[in-house]
Design goal:
CATH superfamily: lambda repressor-like DNA-binding domains
CATH architecture: Orthogonal Bundle
CATH class: Mainly Alpha
CATH topology: 434 Repressor (Amino-terminal Domain)
Helix content: 55-70%
Length: 79
């Protein structure tokens, strides 16, 4: 639900209606409404919505390599 709330907030900040976002993302209006209400959506539809809202760069950080705080963390990960 947290992601759905964030998407809805970004959509409203950009003054985009659900209908407009549905059309620009190629995600059905029903799926978009259900997502904003329940938080449930397919990964492919979520990615389409993110791209339509201009947040595609956020996905590149989703599984980014961990930044290490110390040499010990690097050693511990190798074990």
């Amino acid at each position: 639900m947290e992601i759905a709330a964030k998407v809805k907030a970004r959509r409203k900040e950009k003054k985009i209606t659900q209908q407009t976002l549905s059309e620009s993302s190629n995600v059905s209006l029903g799926s978009l409404k259900r997502f904003e209400r329940t938080g449930e959506i397919s990964l492919s539809s979520l990615i389409k919505i993110a791209f339509a809202l201009g947040y595609e760069d956020d996905f590149s950080q989703l599984f980014a390599k961990k930044a290490y705080a110390s040499i010990q963390e690097v050693i511990d990960e190798q074990l």
